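ARCHIVE CARD
CATEGORY: sequence design from structure
SOURCE FIELD: tokenized fold
FIELD CONTENT:
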């Protein structure tokens, strides 16, 4: 369940970052609402997920989702660069996050 909570937290981080962009583009009210609610709920869910997932892994996955998700939103909705180098870098972030999760599941010691 903590992984589902962490994934929702990562998605809401993207909502918060999108709110910043909306605010910059002149959508002041919706932008502020996206920022406040997106980040507040995201950070709360991150804290809940960290009760079961170690800090380093939870934070790496959360920030990775935020980074990649925000970049994809930027490419789709805000005409951000779709350069191949940028996409490769985003893929590296995804792979690194997955390796953290894989390591935790397969090799990290579990407290008794």
């Amino acid at each position: 369940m903590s992984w589902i909570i962490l994934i929702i937290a990562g998605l809401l981080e993207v909502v918060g970052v999108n709110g910043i962009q909306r605010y910059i583009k002149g959508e002041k009210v919706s932008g502020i609402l996206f920022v406040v609610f997106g980040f507040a709920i995201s950070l709360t869910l991150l804290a809940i997920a960290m009760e079961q997932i170690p800090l380093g892994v939870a934070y790496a996955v959360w920030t990775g989702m935020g980074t990649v998700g925000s970049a994809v939103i930027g490419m789709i909705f805000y005409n951000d660069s779709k350069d191949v180098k940028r996409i490769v870098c985003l893929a590296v972030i995804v792979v690194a996050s997955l390796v953290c999760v894989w390591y935790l599941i397969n090799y990290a010691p579990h407290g008794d």
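CARD ANNOTATION: The chain has one domain: 2-106. Residues 15 and 45 are 14 Å apart (CA to CA).
SHELF: design records, drawer C
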